Amino acid sequence: MSETAQRRGRGRRPAGEVREGVLRAAAGLLLSEGIKAVTFDRVATAAGSSKMTLYKWWPSAGALAAEAYFAHSEHQLEFPDTGDIRADLTAQLCAFVRLITHEGTGPVLAGLIGVAQTDPELSAAFSEHYSAPRRALAVAAFEKARDRGQLRADIDLGILVDQLWGACYNRLLIPDAPLTEDYAVALVANALDGAAP
Amino acid sequence: MSETAQRRGRGRRPAGEVREGVLRAAAGLLLSEGIKAVTFDRVATAAGSSKMTLYKWWPSAGALAAEAYFAHSEHQLEFPDTGDIRADLTAQLCAFVRLITHEGTGPVLAGLIGVAQTDPELSAAFSEHYSAPRRALAVAAFEKARDRGQLRADIDLGILVDQLWGACYNRLLIPDAPLTEDYAVALVANALDGAAP
Lengths: 197, 197
Prior knowledge:
Oligomer: homodimer
Structural class of chain A: mainly alpha
């Protein structure tokens, strides 16, 4: 149904509702067919919205795909806090590895990061809606752990994000070695204890 | 000049020479215009070879791009071995950060990894010609360091590759935090010493 027909037939839907519907439609295409299926044309058809509406809200189909992925995976952002950083990190990182090795999620996330390399709008949306908030949550958990005396005061906490989740992304994107929960456990142990004797 | 004309005019060039010329032409396009410029059409024209020859040797233009990048950057594979793993890693990782933050190399490497997410032939060629040999060299250096008593015997040496170079790739591909030589130095310190008190 065209936007005009909607307006005449049953009044204009509230913007928030339209936006949610578009994000849901984009997430559906992304998860079932991959990043290349997320075009303004196909999302507009699937959502019953006009392409004009989509153009108004998103600078590119890639940016829409990134926001849709985030809206879909928002609940996975939670970071357990039991007061024991070693246990919390192990739990969080094992859950992350299960997520990104799942056949329905791994290729989608890899595809988003892949296309982001040549699509600056997707890259910006991915950072704004997904990776930067995740990084901030992790650093906040590290700060609390440091205040509890579980991390050294002289550590740049940002690098721990790269040595844990970044190390997992490395095996997702450049699959030369296996990405397993055992690997996640070993990453946490080494990030905390170090490889030197 | 067509292949037929070459054969008549001055004899067929040796295969090795043709192959080198094609790789050089592909690297030139890759470094000057990016991954999307590396098509069989443009490489064949630039190398003065036939497209048939290219189809015979490479399963996809992406696979050709990956091999060209490797041939171009082969000398950067060297791993210093002074007998001090901390110093060698710091030198190697700082050189790696300089390489991947260089405006001529960083976007090319990011573009190759990006396209690899949706091009299995590029992914396989990248692994075979670039990332897997680099990983093997690093693990070999770690094994020597372990034999010298500079790394613990119970460490899975493969994860150190991800916590050092993989951490750098993470900031290249998902640029939420700065990728600098200071970062490289901090990565080495934490991978060896750990973040726990």
